[in-house]
Input
Amino acid sequence: MLSLLLARRCLPRRLACVPRRWHSAEAPFEHLNPVTEQDVQQFASILPPSSVLSTLPPSSTAASELDQYNNDWMGKYHGKSTTVLKPKTTQQVSDIVKLCWERRVGIVPQGGNTGLVGGSVPIHDEVVVNLSNMNKVRSFDPVSGILVADAGCILQSLTDYIAPHHHIMPLDLGAKGSCHIGGNVATNAGGLRLLRYGSLHGSVLGIEVVLPDGTILDQLTSLRKDNTGYDLKQLFIGAEGTLGIITGVSILTPPAPQASNNVILALPHFDNVLPLYKEVKRQLSEILSAFEFIDRTAYDLAVKHGQGRGLTEEEVDGAQCFVLVETSGGRRDHDEEKLNDLLESLLGADQPLITNGVLSQSPAQFSSLWSLREGVTEAVSKEGKAYKYDISVPLSTFKQVVDVTRDHLRSKGLLHDGAVKHVIGYGHVGDGNLHLNVIAEQYTDEIQDALEPFIYELVASHRGSISAEHGIGAMKTHALHFSKSDVSIALMKQIKQLFDPRGIMNPGKVIEL
Ligand code: FAD
Ligand code: MLT
Ligand code: ZN
Output
């Protein structure tokens, strides 16, 4: 049997490191110029030598040192930039951008490079402007909770900075140890707290941006209310670096909850998720802060790859999926009582919606339960190569979408023996956001062609969105029309044209010009 499996694995398969419709390596951008040695000399007159990484003279950076900037977190998108610039100040960013504008050199703004749609790496040889050296907190007002920070501050470091003042960041995501606040704003990142604190379109109060011609747009206001005409900052939130480089962010941070608890619930059927959500909302009301979903395979992968301590076999017996509920409230004993009451009523019901529930009993257990959910992304990347679809669809269709995709791949002969290992679903139920992941041995054209446009058509048939939170990047430019009307796309192009008529800022991302 083993030899049969091995023999099958050795059969020649159509493999492609750079699948054709993701990055067309052959055709460079016709409207842009490559970086030259003279450009590098000019960059070196703006930045200290340690901030110019280039394989071109007068720098002498080894090509391998640029790998971390040229390749994305998933190992799916690969650029060929010769030059990475790491400015420390807004003025330096402006000077670099001016030069690129004059020379018509493409720029990729880059934060922590944790993006999942290929937006953060070059398509060809664009210059990477990496913000990691812009990492200072500019101010924090503990009374209003308004934080003003350089765009390159890592999300976790901002969380740590404001923690002694009993405030938290309004967003939290698995990539918090690497992603930048500027990258979060540029992608309008969602994450695990959106249910409670809403999107960045609400909590970002102001931004500072370097426009494609090098102009500094200072909108770094710290006002809760400002109704003076068009709210320009909103255009940059979620623009994925196509309209300018965000250099500073002013953001409203909420007070830290006095008490946070969580519980993981095992469900016998997916059909129970919605009635459970309704019941949890009814019973927990104002203290409910997260309602996250993982299907059985996603859970098993998280456990397999060491993301949090799994439940006992008895506890997960027969579970088809799991829900993680978090509460954040004002009084621990009050919240614990509510959670205990919830569990008791769920387990004691005539037709229980859950088969089991495990309440965290300590900060370590609280983190461990969260890891089972947050760690799915990491587990997936350890398991294989992920095709990640980050979609908004009606909650009632979550399971159907996963099942239909799996059946479709099976019908194409691609499941298991055919190179796809798993099709899983997890995500933010409270936000109507399903993460549909197809995990394969390799990225291949065959799987890609089976998945697209199939999945986008499926999403459109449910009147959903092809991107709930990760963005469009390089991955979905060709698919934008599944979620946006022709009129919307035409307006987006006009906005791009207005800000960036030379098309230098993150070319090839979000919209095809
Ligand atoms: P990058 O990856 O560097 O860039 C992302 C995009 O923003 C690119 O288009 C880039 O050009 C642009 N950009 C970056 N910085 C700037 C800037 N200063 N100015 C202008 N444009 C800029 N996303 C979610 O929404 N929710 C999640 O729960 C979530 N969880 C994740 C968990 C893991 C383990 C991983 C690896 C990723 C996750 N993501 C999630 C995706 C990713 O972390 C977010 O999109 C994040 O906001 C990207 O931040 P970054 O600093 O890494 O940006
Ligand atoms: C998540 O919710 O875990 C993130 O958006 C990342 C992912 O989709 O894997
Ligand atoms: Zn997510």
Summary: DSSP finds 19 helices and 16 strands in the chain. Residues 73, 108-116, 119-120, 131, 151, 173-175, 179-180, 182-184, 186-187, 189-191, 240-241, 245-246, 377-378, 469-470, 473, 506, 509 surround flavin-adenine dinucleotide (ligand 1) (CB under 6 Å). Confidence is low (pLDDT under 50) at residues 1-25.
